[in-house]
Structure formats: structure tokens, C-alpha cells
Amino acid sequence: MAMTVNGEVAEIPLDPRVSLLDFLREHLHLSGTKKGCDQGACGACTVLLDGDRILSCLSLAVQCEGRSITTIEGVGAPGHLHPLQQAFVEHDGFQCGYCTPGQICSAIGMAAEISRGVPSHVTADLSDDRIELSHDELRERMSGNLCRCGAYNGIVAAIAEKIAEEPLVEAAE
Known about the structure:
Elements: E1 2-5, E2 8-11, H1 20-27, E3 46-49, E4 52-55, E5 68-70, H2 83-90, H3 100-116, H4 135-141, H5 152-165, H6 168-172
Parallel strand pairs: 1-5
Antiparallel strand pairs: 1-2, 3-4, 3-5
Helix pairs in contact: 2-5
């Protein structure tokens, strides 16, 4: 049993109780994905599963057999940041940085949802094929990712700027 993590094949642990988060951190030594609450309430562990954002603390590694996982380590590279990572730097979208990997993975997944026309709780017209990413729409969609430092203004500014400029989904693949 295997999955692909950041483009590399990874054997799934034999113990079916291992969470995806623990597999990434303890078995693959990918420490970018953070363990915040371990209950699915903070979003620090957000990764992309086949391009969709998920909470890795609530997912079992065995559930990902044959699938593709992207962690923050697979989003950009040293010396070649993903455009959203660069925007976080430019807009001071982080303070301690603990939530940043989950925020960035979540924003990339959110961009994919918007491009597919997936509505949120605050989407005004559910029949519209094109969703306008208003301030309220962005905040609602990112509400599952908490920042204990309160860097929300920089986070929202970075995401809004990059989604308006270019497709985040293509840049991440």
C-alpha cells in the first residue's frame, strides 16, 4: 500500500490507526504540517489530498492509499517560493508562522473550490457559475484556519491579491 507525497511514493504504515498527520510528521519527517489541536478545530494540519484541502489530523494514512498528498514542503522550494508564500511574506501574513503552512494549503484548496464553483455558506447566488471572492466570502472559506497571533489582515490581503492575479491551483501543481 502506497500513496504519493509531494511527488514521491511513500509506503503507508501497517498500523491502520496512524493518522495522516502523524504519518507525515513522524514517518516521513515532513515537519511543515503542524499539529495544533489534533481535533480538527484549528486547521494547522491542512494538506491537499488530490488537490482538495483536508485536515490531516482527522484522516487516517490508510485512507490515502493510491492518492496524492501535497504538504507545504511540496508547494514551494527553497529559493523558489510559491506565489502565495511570497505574498504572505510581502503582506506580513504571519507572525509566529505556526499556522502558515495550513493557511497556505487551505488557500490553494479554496482557490480550487472557487474555480469549480463550489459555494460557501455566504455565497449570494448558488446558481451562479462564477463565484466572486468578496472579503466576506474569503473570510468564510478560510474560517477553519485559526491564527493565534491574529495576523488575519495580512493573511486575507495575501490570499486576495494572489487569487486576483493568477490561478493558485495551477501554480501549486
